[in-house]
Amino acid sequence: MWLEGSWKLDGKQAYEKWQTINDTMIGGIIYHYAQEEHDKDETDIYFDESIRLIVRGANYFYIPKPQGENKGKEVEFKITLFTSKSFVAENLTHDFPQRIVYELKDAAHLHAYIEGKNKGKTKRIDFLFVSEK
Predict the structure, then answer these.
(1) Which CB contacts under 8 angstroms, 24+ apart, belong to 102-109?
(2) Which residues have a Cβ under 8 Å from the Cβ of 113 and sit 6 or more positions away?
(3) Domain boundaries, position 52
(4) Sign, Cα dihedral of 16, 33, 63, 23
(5) Residues 49, 55, 56, 60: is their CA dihedral positive or negative?
(6) Most buried residue, 54, 56, 60, 62, by most Cβ within 10 Å?
(7) Distance (Å, rounded) from C-alpha 14 to C-alpha 8?
(8) Angle at 117 between CA 33 and CA 70, to 5 degrees
(9) How far apart are CA 89 and CA 79, in angstroms?
(10) What percent of the residues of the chain are helix, what percent strand, and what percent coil, each to the nearest 5?
(11) What is the pLDDT of residue 72?
(12) Domain count across the chain
């Protein structure tokens, strides 16, 4: 699948790494590096989120498990649109986001965004990734 591999968030020390687990699941992790100000040679890795893309029957799901949120539980987003280079996942009952979108721009660039209502206002956060291949 086009999402597989390691993607670096443009201008940040943040990453998404995706790999095929089996015929019905692709697994992803989101993590970032942080350096202590007092020691520039010491770098810590912080785990932010695990994600599963799964097939269940005739449906596909994007299932994130954010670190320190949602009481440690996963949140299901049903994939409502899937193409050879993109997908849209939605959960209209979730607080924020209600929609997650991934779009492969070319072999080296991935655009993702989350959007929905947050405290009564529409909000969108974009993420631009560069391939680490």
Answers:
(1) 102/3, 104/2, 104/3, 107/131, 107/133, 108/133
(2) 100, 101, 124, 125, 126, 127
(3) 5-131
(4) positive
(5) positive
(6) 62
(7) 6
(8) 50
(9) 4
(10) 0, 65, 30
(11) 85
(12) 1
Residue 35, pLDDT above cutoff 90: no
pLDDT band at 38; cut points 50, 70, 90 = very low
**Which tokens belong to 113?**
């965004």
* CATH number of domain containing 14: 2.40.128
pLDDT digits (tens, 9 = 90+) for 54-104: 999 999 999 999 998 888 899 999 999 999 999 999 999 999 999 999 999
- Cα 4 off chain centre by: 12
pLDDT, position 40: 52
Count Cβ atoms below 10 Å from residue 31 Cβ, excluding itself.
Answer: 16
